[in-house]
Amino acid sequence: MRAKAAVLYEMGQPAPYAKSKPIVIEEIELDPPGPGEVLVQIKGAGLCHSDLSVVNGARPRALPLVLGHEAAGIVAEVGPEVHDLAAGDHVVLVFVPSCGDCVPCTEGRPALCEPAAVAGAAGTLLTGARRIKLNGETINHQVGVSCFAEYAVTSRHSLVKIDKELPLDEAAIFGCAVLTGTGAVLNTGQMRPGLSVAVVGLGGVGLNALLAAKMVGASRLVAVDPLGDKLALARQLGASDTFDAASDEVVDQVREATSGGVDLAFEMAGTVEAMDIAYRITRRGGTTVSAGLSHFEHDFSLRHVGMVAEERTIKGSYMGSAVPLRDVPRFIGLYRDGRLPIDKLISARLPLKDINAGFDRLAEGSVIRQIVTM
Question: Are 200 and 289 in contact (CB under 8 A)?
Answer without folding.
Answer: no
